[in-house]
Amino acid sequence: MTADAGPVSSTPPGRAASAPAGRTALGRADSGAPSLADRATPPLDRGGPALTERQEARRRRILHASAQLASRGGFEAVQMREVAEAAGVALGTLYRYFPSKIHLLVATMQDQLQHLHTTLRKRPPAGDDAAQRVAETLMRAFRALQREPHLADAMVRALTFADRSVSPEVDTVSRLTTAIILDAMGLEHPTPEQLSAVRVIEHTWHSGLITWLSGRASIAQVKIDIETVCRLIDLTAPRPVRPA
What we know:
Elements: H1 36-40, H2 53-73, H3 80-87, H4 91-97, H5 101-122, H6 130-147, H7 149-161, H8 167-185, H9 192-213, H10 219-229, H11 232-235
């Protein structure tokens, strides 16, 4: 999920993905289930040792393939065997990095948010106050998702379906979203009240994304909701202490 500078990242990292052209058919079962040995092997990059340069390049190819397949056919188009083929890795290797399709798509959202965060730091929002800057930031994210609705739907469905086994990845997505909002606010040391406001803003943004993807809200309606909830930023800002 990149900002207004362009669509969701399409340049292959490291090695070009060989995803098939055209839209992937929906509703096919994923026949590439991991073996018992694969299931017993702890997944890579989940709080363990740092990845080597080669492992990181492999991981980036996998995430790129996942985003490409999701962009073409949504959640159902992301089949683990097809991801492995597009990324040029063995199926067992793919499961070492991502134990399930849900893990993979949540990690894909994490990757897209990191792209967004980098872009926003290069081109920060230009609002006059913190509430305006946060609203502009979140709407830039929405417009990027609007250009890739299938990818957006796949990532949001994965977040919705995620169980406790995906908690580390979901927590990382939440922390990234918080960091993006705090950067827009210009805060390094928020108060507990400000963090509470940020959480409510995150919930509203996520809810707005779901209602838009399901066709129950327009971008204009989502924009109003986001601008409204961002007023909490002013309400929770520390008040200057008046001299006695």
